[in-house]
Amino acid sequence: MAGITSYGAYVPLWRLSREAIIKGSRGEKAIRNFDEDSTTMAVAAVVDCLKGQDREAIDGLFFASTTAPYREKQIATTIAAAADLRRDIITADFCNSLRSGTGALRMALDTVNAGSAKQVLVVTADCRMGAPGTDFEQYCGDGAAALLIGDSGTVVEIEHWQSLSNELNDIWRRDDDDFIRAWEDRFIYSIGYVNTTAEAVTALLQKANLSPGDFSKAVLAAPTPRTHGDVARKLGFDPKEQVQHHFFDVMGNTGAAYPFMLLVAALEDAKAGDRLLLSSYGNGSDALVLKVTEGIEREVEGRRGMKAHLESKRIIDDYRIYLQWRELLTFEAQPTPPGGHISSVAQWRDRSQIFPLHALKCRQCSNIHFPPQRVCPVCRTRDDYEPWRLSDRKGQIFTFSADNLCPRREAPRVTAIIDFEGGGRMATMMTDRVLEELEVGQTVEMSFRKLASQDGIHNYFWKSIPLRS
């Protein structure tokens, strides 16, 4: 039977102090940098999930979000290319619902159980915006999570599933809406979230012949801290001892990614034999009974998950920076995007070096060079090389420079020459950095980011960032 064989998550480095939004508010929320979106965060979560996994063995990738950067273009293919997966895999997008993540999970489980694939990645990412001054602006955070579904080596088994559909306009966004719309609070939270989730979970417990006391932890994706406690008590769970923390005070509600991010956090503290309950909500509810296996005890080198990402952070207390990053406040016209004008033809032609960041390794002298060249710059051998992925390798800063003649939200723009571990040198743009803290020899890693958008096309590439510890 198919189950979860690996998991990963991504929380952006930056946190916006809620005091910066409304004076007197406490806590913080995770916010994406100006060069991040649902695609880049999904790539980061996939990379975290694939630590210790064979990328050639992945047969499918499903992407779920309510904030996909394109209305008509598949995002799963971009993520698969950046993760350096095979081209002959199944890819699909699940969008427009906060339940799209669990919907994609159900599809992945059915795909593996049917024998159509051995391993399928399910990745969710969201970066919803609430209108300035609203509760949604306070509570909505950004992030991503990924689950690898397979039929062997499972760390979590899915024992039971219950779905419930509920048609009502409680929370929505139209195609042309930047901000979340909602009906009156008592209706959307009581009639919408609490009653619907309670109905789905109650039906699940009856089907599985289980009671709240049979669970080590309940993972409840709630829209607010108050409703999180309300639904836990209504179902009979102890909010203090039996319910996964909601992270509203340190991260916020991350939309479609929220259930999986909470699940990853719960799995980091789980032990073999624990039974978990997971619920999602969005025009209905999905509720699952999960059983943790002995595979949970396997240590995965390099995986950050939720704990390490939450601990690695920088606080922003200037609300204007947040508005600039969301393009809600601009000071000047944008100059020509970095790298010049965007070309779909050039993106296609150079796709192997843009998305998986492939360099070339000479088979004669083992020299690694980027960008790729047909003739080895060391031994002059022609057309005798193999691809060499740089995106998952660490490096050290050889030298760097800063340029203030750039858009204000990015200033100063830092360019660094990176020497990769194992060989290879590359000129990169740096992000998630503080100029005064950079130094030659500092360890960095690569992060998939958005360079610019022009004529409706998003231009993605890899940047270097200081190693998140």
Q: Could you characterize the architecture of this molecule?
A:
- With 469 residues, this protein is an alpha+beta fold.
- The chain has two domains: 3-325, Peroxisomal Thiolase, Chain A, domain 1; 353-466, OB fold (Dihydrolipoamide Acetyltransferase, E2P), CATH 2.40.50.840.
- The protein is 24% helix and 29% strand.
- It has helices spanning 18-21, 38-49, 76-82, 100-113, 135-139, 185-208, 225-235, 258-268, 305-311, 319-325, 344-349, 351-354; strands at residues 3-10, 14-17, 28-31, 60-65, 90-95, 119-126, 143-150, 156-165, 171-172, 181-182, 217-220, 275-281, 284-292, 314-316, 358-362, 368-369, 385-389, 395-403, 413-420, 425-430, 443-454, 457-466.
- The strands form five sheets. A nine-stranded mixed sheet has the order 5-4-6-7-1-8-13-12-11, with helices on both faces. Strands 20-19-18-21-22 form a five-stranded antiparallel sheet.
- A hairpin with an 8-residue loop joins strand 9 (171-172) and strand 10 (181-182).
- Helix 6 (185-208) runs parallel beside helix 7 (225-235).
- The longest helix is centred in the middle third of the chain and has 24 residues, at 185-208.
- The model has no long low-confidence stretch (mean pLDDT 94).
